Amino acid sequence: MTEYRPAVAGYNLLDVVVGDIVHVTEYVTAAALADPSTLDAARAAALGGHRAPVSRVPVEAIIGSDTGHAIAVITHRGGGEPLVDGDDVIRVADGIVYLPSVHTAEGDFRDQYRWSLERIAALLRRAGLDTGALVRTVDYTATATRAEYPRCGRPRRELLGPGPVHPGAAGILVDVPVAPGAQVSLDAIGATGPLQALNPGWARYDTLTYKPAVRAGKSIFLAGFGALDPVSQRTIHDGDLVAQAAYVYRSIETVLAEAGATGENVVHLVEYVTPEAAADYPRTAALRERHFPDAVVTAVVCSALLRPEFLIETVPTAVLP
Fold first, then answer.
1. pLDDT of residue 65 exceeding 90
2. PANTHER family, per this entry (predicted)?
């Protein structure tokens, strides 16, 4: 059984069987990134000889914590199958392929985005798959490159192919690079079995290289959801975090219904909140618990979101019984 564990304020606080870890996400502030070797050493000490794919995500802050980093892990009994490619390791557990985050400091924005997708493709080949196996991508870029962001469309079209299944996707703006010179960092998840795109009839996705959600077996990997009307493609509820969250949560449930699922099937939420909305975030708690009563929630403050009017973007994962 796969479990999403709540984020903790350090590797020393992990309460898991280390050999069961299939993925690690490190949410790190600028202060923690100033000396990444400290976090590397803490990870090595905690994991010992166990190798797991690691995603390092720069953030402005971690909601509910005043520490410089938070550690979130996914576990599966036995730790799945490890596959090594150079310095990277991937793990395959219950048909899900967990990858490390990738980035480069070489080239301009589009070059770096293309390199990242090509690296993900190489890691998937190690598992006997191609980019058609992707179920989710999350890219982290900076507000300074927001105007350039549409340039990632071409490498996505060329490397992800024509579909009909494309991964769920999210784009988050973080102004502290994961490494000097890196303009983009890319996270991805794949799956080994047949995939099904889930779309409640929203035509805007017909021309995009991502879908509202992808089902892989019993798992459903949804895209990032903001308060966007899928018909008019306009942001709604400007300046009102609670109203935006309510709209986002209803949209998620609309997509889940395509697979016969509900909010009760959501096991994990990552919520990216803008700095101006962070103080209001506790006001969304009761609403979120009504929609997703069994979800483990990780909430962080990003620098901004791709739509300047967005105050929150939510990335959910659901599992069918």
1. no
2. BLR7761 PROTEIN, YJGH FAMILY PROTEIN
